[in-house]
Amino acid sequence: MLSSIDNGAPLSSSHVLPDLPHLSSHADSRSSMAVYLQNLKEIADVLAAAGQPLSESDLVAYILGGLPEEFDSTVKSIETRIERVNTDELHGLLLSREAVLLKRQARGSSHSQEPFHAYHATSCHG
Known about the structure:
The chain is an all-alpha fold. The protein has seven helices and no strands. The radius of gyration is 21 Å and the shape is globular.
């Protein structure tokens, strides 16, 4: 789709918009959040250059809609906020969440696969 940009042909939003949901669904464990966000920013820039800019709220919706389920709690939190989140703030929130998930994943793979057991105190009667 972006090849139409490279060959100098005029670009309209109809050439790019159908690919947005497809591209936004690529946020998975194989690519980093930074790459995912950069890809969507590039698409938004292409649309703006074509005279069909996305509103900030539409861009936020595309970003949130393409996140994997590991981000469901973050998405729910953002969707229930009273104040709207802008793309800069969203970028920071998602990178922070990704860091937490990666840390958990690393910690989980370095420990045995035994289930977690909480310890509790017991009293001895004597």
